[in-house]
Amino acid sequence: MVSNRSMPVIKSKDGLKSFLLTSRILSPSAWAKVEGEVAEIQDVAAVLQFLERRQLLTPFQTGRILKDETEGLVLGRYKLLYRNASGSFARVFRAECVDDGKTVALKLLRERWVDDPRTVAGFVREARICQKFIHPNIVPILDVGNEGRFYYFTMEFVEGGNLRDFMKIRKTLSPLEATRCIYQTCLALEYALKMGASHRDLKLTNVLMSSAGVAKLVDFGLAGAETPSQAGTSDDVQRALEYSTLERGTNAPRNDPRSDIFFAGSIYYELLCGEGPWTRTFDREEKLMLTRYSNVRPLRQIMPGLPSGVYKIVETMMELNPSSRYQSCTEVNKDLRALLAELGEVVEDPGGKSAASQGKVGSKSASSTPVKSNKNNFNLLVVETGRKREKKLKQYFEQHAFVLNFIESASDAFEKLKSKSPPDGVLFLADADSAPVMEIYPKVQAYARTLKVPCVALFAAEDSDAVKKQIYPTKFGATMFQPTSPRDLRQHFAEISGFDSSTVAAPETPKRKETRDPKASAEIKTARAASQELDDLDVDSDVEDDPKRSLSTSTTNAKKQADEEVARLDSISSTDDESSNSPSLSSATASKKPANEAAAVSPTSKPAAPLNATQRAAAIRAAQRAAEKAAVEQAARESEEKANALIAKAARIAAEKVAAEEDVKRKAEEKRLAIEKAAADKAEAERKAVEDAALKRAQEEQRIVQEKAEAERKAAEKIARKKAETEERIANEKAEA
């Protein structure tokens, strides 16, 4: 590769072309595509602007070329695209391999340090140490090299940002998110130590969070350095003072791996509460004070209510006495895995292999399948104005190990969701008043997605169009419409959260002595099941003041028949029980009833005899058939309504899509015409400029020619005049002689 140092200053288009192709900033094929378009552009700055508009050059590259700072724009196989970060010792650039177009991060030692042999050695040592690391939670080093006075190495380019930038946005992380992040960090530390290196520069900016939610360690600039002067190019070399102060003050050996555990604990602390355990400072004397690390405010005081396991791990990692601290990252990771399991995410023990929890920060699990919760109950927060359905919903959900808490304000529910102890799920009953929920639900969806708390907003059927225009349903922020059964809601929450109520032992209830005939008991259970099925048809079946959202008349009548049958069979069975247990008391009581009381029960006939088993079974079957018929009719009506709604929606979406496509085509055509007009105007302006310049040059040349001719004419005339005068003088002299 030809060194940029030998390139002359670029003053012409041909010189620019030669530099771009020789340095490989542009490939010959890329230049060939635009060569015809730049043929008439002579100005170097104009050519660079054109190439930048065509995205063949970056603003960083054109700026350096215009300033004649072309040296170092290409290093080895990599051309610099942008500057990403800058520190006192090195700068990090986004770069691209000229061979295959792969994007990398390139770390370049600043020029003022290249004459310091110890700094250069530390820089190269950092690269060589990290180059042998192959771990999913460590950013890998790809190439190490130097070109003249330029010392550099390339790394994997991580799309995302460092934890400090991440925390500026998030402020705090949930216990699960923070634990997963620090677990991945400690896995990287455990691996590095097995490879013979410690980090010794742990801080938020040296932990990157990829767009996939994976924590990755960078900048082992102090790894294994014997003295601060060997510390390489960490952006804050004084960080070595913090490690050495901790080790000297606690009588720990120099380069103690347990120091990395202490500072990893400080990162965990800050992720959980949003503030560091000590104030950041650049003051050397303050960093040398051991009290800075011993007077840390307990996390329990700042963030009460976190799981006890979180406090235990943070406190053990940040024990000032190294003997009381975790003795290795292997011990830390063991407790972190147990804590993750308690928080609902099970990760496998790597067992010495390079395996890590690759779950996305903010997700319940790396897998798309929900992790089954090991909790005994599912805490569901229900938002309903007036609480008209509280009794019925509690009666149904509590049978399936759900614990319901009711609240009337949607905004209060949102605050509960943002609290330190959010519920396991939130149900917004917005079918009576949709406006407050529609206003706040998009915010709820954002937090629910982050916390992985399933939320459902239940709206009235007539609000579906308005809701669908304003709210886009998501996995953790679903929308449903009436009619919806409690069973549908329960199954949704169970599916999203992974809660399995079948594994929860049902609470023991006192058993009533069974004295009924076994056949009668079975018939009563059947009738009750029919009634319960009707109960499950619609959440709104108990709302008396809203008939348009209640069950259909036929369904209500069928339910009433089933309920009456249950009551009648219970009554018959209870009467049989009482008669069999105390026949004499029942007979005596009946004999003592007055005649008018008997008449009041049945004024025109004798009391009806109890139904036999066959008659009772027939009555139950009739009630079941009525219920089934009503349910089928209801389902048919709902299916027809949904089909019509879907057809209308499909037609509307198709029309909107056609209109949108037409709008896009129109805008594209307008943009094309505008670009063509701009190009034509520019070409016309350039043509006129060229013509004007040519005309001006021609006029100037003509003027010069005319002036020259006139001067020659005058000179000839003068010579001729002098010659004539001379001849005349000679003639006169001859005549006189």
State the name of the first-level CATH class of the domain at 160-342: Mainly Alpha
| Beta fraction | 5-15%
Strand order of the largest sheet: 1-2-3-4-6-5
What overall form do the CA principal axes indicate?
A: flat
Outline the biggest β-sheet: 6 strands, antiparallel
Strand tally is 14
The secondary-structure class comes to: alpha/beta
Please specify the SSE layout and strand pairing.
Layout: H1 13-23, H2 28-35, H3 44-53, H4 59-66, E1 74-75, E2 78-86, E3 90-97, E4 103-109, H5 117-131, E5 141-147, E6 150-156, E7 160-162, H6 163-170, H7 175-194, E8 207-210, E9 215-217, H8 239-249, H9 257-273, H10 284-287, H11 291-294, H12 299-302, H13 308-317, H14 329-342, E10 378-383, H15 390-397, E11 402-407, H16 410-418, E12 425-429, H17 435-451, E13 455-459, H18 464-470, E14 477-481, H19 486-497, H20 518-535, H21 553-581, H22 583-592, H23 595-601, H24 613-736
Parallel strand pairs: 10-11, 10-12, 12-13, 13-14
Antiparallel strand pairs: 1-2, 2-3, 3-4, 4-6, 5-6, 7-8, 8-9
Helix pairs in contact: 7-9, 7-14, 9-13, 13-14, 16-17, 20-21, 20-24, 21-22, 21-24
